[in-house]
């Protein structure tokens, strides 16, 4: 039953949509918007991360496109530009029991992370047209609802004469969710300004500098954020003493704008940078408007590294019930507002918890990840492999330089009987995102444990020991 707070949240979403002209901007995408009854068609899994700035700085990111295989099953197709590493398909099909989709390797037409653009050209385009025509339909399930994905749907639909839908928000809504400045405006309308850290938004260097100095007079640490970056790649953090003078603040701002290749006139956020190790995330699925309420799929503690808090993994929340309740309430309210705007599909929110989580605390809502990501991918994979209550687990990327040059079959042999096998439902380790293994000694792992402490020990002790590290 919808509460008064949910109704107000939905109204806030509609009002923001009206202010941004969303209804008119969504019309060009109407013919390709997904509905639940479309899922009987073959699904094209497509992980294109090209719209997010600076991800090229992440080691092996060009291989992350193979995460789309984890969502694919029988009759589906997943497309990549880079080939799968030796043994990957056999591992997904036979060990994890993820079915036998068709893997289509598209010819690159630009950087390898531009998967959607590659799909719209050459042999890949012809094959996808044939699949859609033979099945009398297709649904594209992308990493993120970027313009190139929707253009691909239009191209395939025209070429095949068949409906092709997209299981993601249209680009105008995708960027309301993923743009930090616009999303902060939505949170303010739904939850009030007190649900955010103190934030100022500006479009010119002088005002950004002034905002940074103003915040530095009130907070021990402050930060700058580009609006559309992920994984802390577009952030800079300063001690207040480093930016209190006009000269120092000006130098800091200019250096940040140069490093992040700022296009003049684009919004930049100056924020209070709060000291806390508690940065949970809420994971949601948002159905089309009128076809169900947003669903909270989990609350997670994010594993962050370094001064800039770079994401490396996650574990199910062990925070007190009152904190989890506060996180869930705020997340579902904002998700309802996004649904009113036309958002569909996977979505997550990053939060901060300050104060005493067992007593007087404050739960703040920081950012939206309007896409699949580093927490939702292992969560959904685990749900697929082990239906029912989730076990205790920790998921994260691991980097072992001594594994550079290693082959997947050798890695699987080393893990041995601790490898999870779908046929038995037993095993401790699920390996994924294996493309960066050979060049970077890097892959992702889900460590399942009898309890959370045991799951943590799997990553920190048992796995390195098994690999002889």
- What is the percent of helical residues? 25-40%
**What is the subunit organization of this protein?**
single chain
Please state the CA-atom Rg, rounded to the nearest Å: 22 Å
What is the total domain count? 4
Report on the structure:
The chain is of the alpha+beta class. The chain has helices at 4-19, 22-26, 88-95, 115-119, 122-135, 147-160, 171-178, 180-191, 205-216, 246-259, 321-341, 376-385, 408-415, 437-440, 452-466; strands at 43-46, 77-80, 102-105, 138-142, 164-166, 199-202, 221-226, 235-239, 268-272, 280-286, 295-305, 310-316, 345-355, 361-369, 392-399, 429-432, 442-449. A hairpin with an 8-residue loop joins β7 (221-226) and β8 (235-239). The longest helix has 21 residues, at 321-341. The radius of gyration is 22 Å and the shape is globular. 46% of the residues are buried. The mean pLDDT is 94.
């Amino acid at each position: 039953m919808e509460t008064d707070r949910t109704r107000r949240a939905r109204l806030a979403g509609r009002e923001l949509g009206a202010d941004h002209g969303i209804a008119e901007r969504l019309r060009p995408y109407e013919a390709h918007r997904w509905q639940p009854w479309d899922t009987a068609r073959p699904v094209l899994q497509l992980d294109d991360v090209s719209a997010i700035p600076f991800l090229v700085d992440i080691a092996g990111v060009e291989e992350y496109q193979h995460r789309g295989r984890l969502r694919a099953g029988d009759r589906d197709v997943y497309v990549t530009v880079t080939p799968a590493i030796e043994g990957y398909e056999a591992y997904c099909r036979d060990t994890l029991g993820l079915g036998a989709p068709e893997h289509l390797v598209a010819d690159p037409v630009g950087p390898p992370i531009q998967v959607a653009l590659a799909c719209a050209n050459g042999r890949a385009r012809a094959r996808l047209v044939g699949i859609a025509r033979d099945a009398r339909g297709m649904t594209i399930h992308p990493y993120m609802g970027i313009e190139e994905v929707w253009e691909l749907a239009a191209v395939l639909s025209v070429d095949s004469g068949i409906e092709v839908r997209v299981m993601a928000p249209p680009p105008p809504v995708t960027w309301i969710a993923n743009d930090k400045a616009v999303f902060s405006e939505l949170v303010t309308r739904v939850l009030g300004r007190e649900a955010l850290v103190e934030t100022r938004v500006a479009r010119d260097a002088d005002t950004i500098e002034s905002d940074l100095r103003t915040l530095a007079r009130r907070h021990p640490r402050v930060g700058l954020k580009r609006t559309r970056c992920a994984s802390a790649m577009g952030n800079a953090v300063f001690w207040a003493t480093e930016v209190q003078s006009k000269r120092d603040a000006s130098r800091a701002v200019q250096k940040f704008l140069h490093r992040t290749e700022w296009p003049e006139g684009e919004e930049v956020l100056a924020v209070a940078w709060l000291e806390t190790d508690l940065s949970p995330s809420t994971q949601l699925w948002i159905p089309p408007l009128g076809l169900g309420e947003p669903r909270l799929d989990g609350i997670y503690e994010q594993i962050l590294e370094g001064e800039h808090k770079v994401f490396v993994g996650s574990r199910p929340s062990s925070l007190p019930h009152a904190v989890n309740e506060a996180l869930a309430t705020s997340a579902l309210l904002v998700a309802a507002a996004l649904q009113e705007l036309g958002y569909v599909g996977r979505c997550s929110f990053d939060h901060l918890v300050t104060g005493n989580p067992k007593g007087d605390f404050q739960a703040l809502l920081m950012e939206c990840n309007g896409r699949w990501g580093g927490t939702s991918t292992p969560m959904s994979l685990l749900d697929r492999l082990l239906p029912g209550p989730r076990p205790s687990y920790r998921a994260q990327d691991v980097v072992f330089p001594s594994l550079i040059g290693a082959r997947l079959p050798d890695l699987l042999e080393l893990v041995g009987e601790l490898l999870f096998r779908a046929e038995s439902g037993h095993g401790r380790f699920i390996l994924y995102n294996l493309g960066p293994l050979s060049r970077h000694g890097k892959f992702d792992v889900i460590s399942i444990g009898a309890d959370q402490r045991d799951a943590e020990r799997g990553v920190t002790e048992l796995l390195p020991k098994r690999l002889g590290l």
